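pinging the channel bc i need a second pair of eyes. not urgent but kinda urgent?? the chain im working w is below, pasted from the shared doc
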Amino acid sequence: MDRTDTSGDARRRGGITLRAVNKTYGTGEAAVHALTDVDLHVRPGELVAVLGASGSGKTTLLNIIGGIEAADSGSIVVAGQDISGRNPATLGEFRRDHVGFVFQFFNLIPTLTARENVEVIVELTGRGDRRRVRTLLAAVGLADRADHFPSQLSGGQQQRVSIARALATDPDLLLADEPTGALDVATGRGVLELLQQTSRAGRGVVMVTHNEVAAGIADRVIHMRDGRVVADEVNANPVAAATIRW
């Protein structure tokens, strides 16, 4: 049974509240403290960028928010659900019902068309509506590529398919791990526009990136180092994604 937080933004669509979250890999001298006493609050409709060097804990943070991994300790409330201490099965249910993921390397099924790659997540999760798939592909600029296979699409087009797939189940929260890392500037800019539009539509969006220019589109920028949040900066004037250069 879902445990629902009854306070503040965390109970509304896409809100996130983390308090004193810790995650360690390994034991003894080999232990790696991936996250140490991390506090984070994301409001629904807010786009947050997470910056930091490799090994700073960015991806671990994203995985814990999305229920891919469990924290060792701390309080985690996402989209109104308290997921602290849940077992893998119930974390899987949480991901299915509340979270969309966009990964750097797309993870499309090569033997399925763009349309089928989006439809399959609807079929597997039992959420969303197959009738919306073509609408989603049109929204990401791929109406005329719906019946093409991944090998027939550019990197930017494949990433846009992955965004349509992430949105197909109408998730409360969109998590993006280095979504522009494998893309050129023009196609990366298009992906960032879609993330910005998604947050403006009321979903929480958290984007892990190493690109400080890309982070300029965010409402807030979180800086991580050695598993800790070392800065949390409000961006009073987010840059329109269509205008950025790097």
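so The CA atoms of residues 23 and 71 lie 5 Å apart. and Residues 44-66+98-243 form a domain with the Rossmann fold fold (CATH 3.40.50.300). — does that match what u expected or am i reading it wrong
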